[in-house]
Specification:
Elements lengths: L2 H6 L15 E12 L2 E13 L4 E5 L6 H8 L7 E6 L2 E2 L5 H10 L1 E4 L11 H12 L3 H14 L15 H13 L5 E5 L7 H16 L3 E6 L2 H4 L4 E6 L2 E7 L13 H4 L1 H6 L1 H18 L1 H38 L4 E6 L16 H8 L4 E16 L2 E10 L3 H4 L4 E4 L4 H5 L4 E4 L1 H8 L9 E4 L2 E9 L13 E5 H9 L6 E6 L5 H16 L4 E5 H44 L1 H9 L4 H37 L9 H27 L3 H6 L2
Parallel strand pairs: 3-8, 3-9, 6-7, 7-8, 13-18, 15-17
Antiparallel strand pairs: 1-2, 1-4, 4-5, 9-10, 11-19, 11-20, 12-13, 12-16, 12-19, 14-17, 15-18, 16-17
Length: 669
């Protein structure tokens, strides 16, 4: 590595700090671990000072405590007792976020096993510390490229760890350690997993970093590696048994300001960028484990598909039923004799008369009113006799009941006044009397003993609420009452409400008018709008019930998300430890896993909605009566449910991930 490169990698130090202040100071530091009921003392009353710019080797046998000492120096672990200061700042008083900031901006870690993230390429592995530091993307991309290029990896930027040799992986690890400056380089057995040639190359790089002004601390059991250090500290049974200098330490610059303070403002400004990076990292992690992601999504897909499809089927069925109700006149009020349906005295009450119809037509809220009388009678055409329902009505009846004509016209007010012998028949009557080959218009039929000319045919009625096998004919009320039935009182009166007027209000006005005219309550009203409202309530209740059943599948899917995310945390424990070692805070780890859970659920929601539309297409092919109706509200609800499930069921795994101890996490395979 050239001197130009050495200058490029030189760490930034604070000129205002005191030269006499040691960079790292441990006083009376002990570290104990509990193993079952026993307590194991890994370090015992360690007193140690390391100045800025030193090259220190910590040696000792396995289990001597050297790795524990390095972990405490790098703020990966904490002392059970004693004091540890970094640049004069007591670490014991720092919370987890401040310690993460120290690791991120003050220390650079080089591990024996490299600890690179397998699903990221070399460039993105190097960038990780800068991501958590809030460095702008362009700036960190450029620095990562420069570092990798200077360490001879320009042609391997897009290679993943599995595509690199051991020496190349260790170089990537060194670049990562230098990404945020790396004033203190902590190298744990940096050459232990390398061949002799690669080990010499890595050692040369560390020596050049030391020459550039970095403080380098080596943890090793190899005397050859330790021989490069200017100071060798030997640890045995948790105690420093020797501290010897091999060369005179160079004069050093002042201690750098604690990184947690230096970068506080930048972290605040970069919060939004870090959230965006969390989405990027989550996307890469999900793509790297496609099968696990698909299995996680499966429950959400089923749940969202169920909720959206059931909602669409419910809306379609409701629209179909309400359309049928509207077809028979949802804004229609019928008036009958008696106190209610089934009143035995109703036949004896003959107070409904044509004059009531005239009075009702005069009401402002009434669009039209028509008298109705009816009776079953015999109709003959040539030598064919059929029983039909004869209805005596006014010319407004077809408007009131919203009955369309397939052919011909309806009778007029003049036809009614002169008791014209004209008749309108329905589709079924036409079919029975004339068949398909005869035009019924102009044909004469006998209604009872009265010959009548057919002037109109109503359209085929497929209404759910109208019997499809009945035969109906309509004569002018005056003709039916005077020439066929001999009846002057009315069976009922049908009133059509003006558009836009509340049906309930009109019903009250009609009742008030009829009471004034009759002087007593000898009638009752039947408002079809109330039937529609009842049907709407019933439909909403049924849809809600079915949706609640579908929500159960969503909850089950959410539990599946939580379970697989918990497994993911277990599988990715070492990754979490790596992220914490390079400076990720607990909130960063928690955010990372929450974002992954929400993304899985949102993708599952999108797939579920797409499947619902596919089901809607198939439904339309096989079910002709009605169609599934997808409302924007159900789509928004689906996305809201997806996000909520991601947050609710992703929180526990995310919290568990954030609570992991960095040392224990790094030790996992």
């Amino acid at each position: 590595m050239s001197m130009d490169m050495t200058a490029e990698l030189r760490p930034h130090t604070a000129a205002a700090a005191k030269a006499a202040e040691p960079l790292l100071r441990l006083q009376g530091v002990s570290r104990s671990f509990r193993a079952g009921d026993r307590e194991f003392l890994a370090l015992k009353d360690i007193d140690l000072q390391i100045d800025s710019g030193e090259l220190v080797a910590i040696i000792g046998a396995s289990g001597s405590g050297k790795s524990t000492l390095m972990n405490i120096l790098g703020c990966l672990d904490h002392a059970s007792s004693g004091s540890y200061q970094v640049g004069g700042q007591e670490t014991r008083a720092l919370d987890s976020d401040a310690l993460a900031a120290l690791r991120r901006d003050h220390f650079g870690f080089i591990f024996q096993r490299y600890h690179l993230l397998a699903h990221l390429d070399a460039l993105h592995n190097v960038e990780i510390p800068a991501v958590y530091a809030g460095t702008p993307p362009a700036q960190r991309h450029q620095r990562a490229r420069d570092l990798l290029t200077r360490l001879g990896l320009a042609g391997h930027l897009a290679h993943r760890p599995s595509q690199l040799s051991g020496g190349q992986q260790q170089r990537v690890s060194i670049c990562r350690a230098l990404m945020n400056g790396g004033q203190v380089i902590l190298a744990d057995e940096p050459t232990g997993a390398l061949d002799s040639h690669s080990g010499k190359e890595v050692m040369n790089i560390l020596l050049e970093l030391h020459a550039a002004g970095h403080t380098v601390i080596l943890v090793t059991h190899d005397p050859k590696v330790a021989a490069h250090a200017e100071r060798v500290i030997e640890v045995s049974d948790g105690q420093i048994v020797a501290d010897r200098r091999t060369v005179r330490p160079p004069a050093t610059a002042s201690v750098s300001e604690p990184a947690a303070q230096a970068h506080a403002g930048r972290r605040l400004v970069a919060s939004l960028g870090l959230f965006r990076e969390a989405f990027k990292m989550a996307w890469i992690a999900l793509l790297s484990h496609r099968m696990r992601t698909l299995l996680t999504m499966l429950g959400i897909v089923i749940g969202i598909t169920s909720v959206v499809s059931i909602s669409a089927i419910g809306e379609g069925a409701k629209g179909y039923v309400l359309k049928d109700i509207q077809a028979i006149g949802s804004n229609t009020i019928d008036i009958f004799s008696g106190s209610n349906f089934g009143d035995s005295r109703a036949k004896a009450i003959e107070t409904l008369v044509p004059a009531d119809v005239v009075a009702l037509n005069a009401l402002y809220y009434v669009d039209s009113a028509t008298p109705v009388i009816g009776q079953s009678t015999l109709v003959r055409y040539r030598n064919l006799d059929v029983d039909v329902q004869l209805n005596g009505v006014s010319e407004r009846y077809f408007q009131v009941r919203n009955i369309p004509l397939a052919a011909g016209i309806v009778f007029s007010a003049e036809d009614a006044q002169r008791q014209a012998q004209v008749v309108v028949i329905d589709h079924n009557t036409r079919k029975r009397l004339f068949g398909q080959g005869v035009d019924p218009l102009g044909q004469v039929i006998l209604v009872g003993n009265l010959p009548c000319t057919v002037i109109g045919v109503t359209a085929l009625n497929k209404n759910l609420f109208v019997a499809s096998n009945t035969l109906n004919i309509w004569l002018p009320y005056e003709t039916a009452a005077g020439r066929v039935l001999g009846q002057r009182h009315l069976d009922s009166i049908s009133v059509r409400v003006k558009d836009g007027v509340p049906s309930k209000r009109v019903e009250e006005e009609v009742t008030k008018l009829m009471l004034q005219r009759h002087g007593t309550k000898d009638f009752f009203t039947n408002n079809l709008d109330s039937i529609m409202q009842t049907m709407q309530k019933t439909s909403r209740s049924l849809t809600l019930l079915l949706s609640l059943i579908a929500v159960i599948s969503l909850v089950v899917g959410g539990i599946g998300v939580m379970n697989i995310m918990l497994v993911s945390v277990t599988e990715r424990t070492r990754e979490i430890g790596i992220r914490m070692a390079v400076g990720a805070r607990q909130s960063d780890i928690r955010q990372q896993f929450l974002v992954e859970a929400v993304m899985v659920c949102l993708f599952g929601g999108v797939v579920g909605i797409a499947l619902s539309y596919g089901i809607g297409y198939l439904f339309e092919l096989f079910v002709k009566q009605w169609e599934m109706v997808f409302s924007p509200g159900s789509i928004v609800m689906a996305f809201a449910c997806s996000s909520l499930i991601g947050v609710l069921f992703g929180f526990v795994p995310a919290r568990n991930a954030a609570r992991l101890d960095p040392i224990e996490a790094l030790a996992r395979d």
